[in-house]
Amino acid sequence: MIVDIKNLDIDDVGVEMVIMDQDCTKLLDRKELKLNKHVDSMAFFEIDFKLDHPGSYDYGVRLFAKNVDLPHRQDVPLLRWV
After folding, report:
1. What is the pLDDT of residues 31-78, one digit of tens each?
2. Is residue 25 part of a domain?
């Protein structure tokens, strides 16, 4: 996944995949994507994982704010679903 972070610091942005059951009633897993490279304002994220259980799932990818002074992601109402 490629994200144009513009003037943000690369350490202030995170990307994660959220995996839910097919009814979207239960969170099954959440995996943060790893920063592969950073060129100018473009950040390249990747993920490599396998689902442990067979079946149908719903998933989404979201961009969120990261900061060492931010203990919980919910503290800042800044989230973008991709």
Report:
1. 999 999 999 999 999 999 887 778 888 988 988 888 888 777 666 766
2. yes
39 falls within a domain: yes
Whole-model pTM: value is 0.78
The residue count for the chain: 82
d(CA 54, CA 61): 20
Please check whether residue 66 is in contact with residue 15, taking contact to mean a CB–CB distance below 8 angstroms: no
Task: Report d(CA 16, CA 73) in Å as an integer.
Answer: 12
Label residue 4 left, alpha or beta by phi (over 0 means left) and psi (-120 to 50 means alpha). Answer: beta
Q: Which residue has the tokens 């961009």?
A: 63
| Residue-wise pLDDT tens digits, 31-40 | 999 999 999 9
